[in-house]
Amino acid sequence: MSGGSPVAGVPVKAIAEAVLERMARLGLTWRLRPARVVSVAGDGTVRVVHDGDTVPIRVVSMVGPVAVNAKVFVLKTPPAGNHIVGWAARPSTAPIWARKTDEPQNNSTAFLADPQLVLPIPAAGTYALSGAVWYRSSAVADFKGRFVFSAGSGGMRWSADGPLLADPTKPSFQLVFDAGTLALGATGTFDRAWVHGTVTANGPGALTLEWGQNTADGAATTFVLRDSWLRLEAIR
Asked: How far apart are CA 7 and CA 129, in angstroms?
């Protein structure tokens, strides 16, 4: 009789079921479950929540970098832990847009957090920033702007091509780091700044344009025009 043949009188099925039950009690069964990535820390620590669960668990990705909200398959492999072994669905990589449809005024040097020029950041990563900010201000007040992480954290380098502060009939090119302020000239009619930059996010968050007068001029009407826009796209 070969070693693989059943032995008469031996309850093979019952023994196998008992072994499986014992392994389950000890947590020694492999299990593949769908999950959603809920956090990616700066040190690379990834946590997911299994479908139907609410408690995040730490996992190791075997498929490379993952983003928050990515749908993945997690394999529980005792005693090694939990590993991401495949994709259920990737998060959208489409560019993120923000566009002005309203024109609130800010006739002071205090920064106004623009309620519409806000870019949601879906996950940690590096992003390309671009945009066209159209504004109107007096030649006394001029214009200033900055970007801030209104949610989350990170860093950025950005520049703007626009009217020179000392002489708005001439062009200006300025480079700004992080939440630094960029000041531009104004002609009293309509002026424009082309925005370009690189944003590095530590996790999910939001990037907001704040703006105001560079020099106080309460008699001036200072605002960012409709159809100004910003665009954020992940760099792959």
From this structure: 71
pLDDT at 186: 94
Q: Which two tokens stand for residue 126?
A: 């590096």
Query: How many whole angstroms from its chain centre is CA 207?
Result: 9
Q: What is the pTM of this model?
A: 0.64
CATH for the 12-89 domain, from 2.40.50.140, 2.60.40.740, 2.40.110.20, 3.40.50.1370: 2.40.50.140
The DSSP annotation for 113-182 comes to: EEEEEEEEE-SSEEEEEEEEEEEE--TTT-EEEEEEEEES-EEEEEEEEEE-SS-TTSEEEEEEETT--E
Q: Please, what is the Cα angle at 71 between 70 and 75, to 5 degrees?
A: 120
Mean pLDDT across 201-211:
90
Confirm if 99 and 206 have CB atoms less than 8 A apart.
no
State the pairing for strand pair 57-61/81-89.
Answer: parallel
Query: Which CATH fold would you assign to the domain 96-234?
Result: Jelly Rolls (2.60.120)
Q: Are 90 and 122 in contact (CB under 8 A)?
A: no
Answer yes or no: same fold for 12-89 and 96-234. Answer: no
Tell me the residue type at 48: V
Contacts of 195 by beta carbon, 8 Å cutoff, 6+ apart? 129, 130, 131, 132, 133, 158, 159, 160, 230
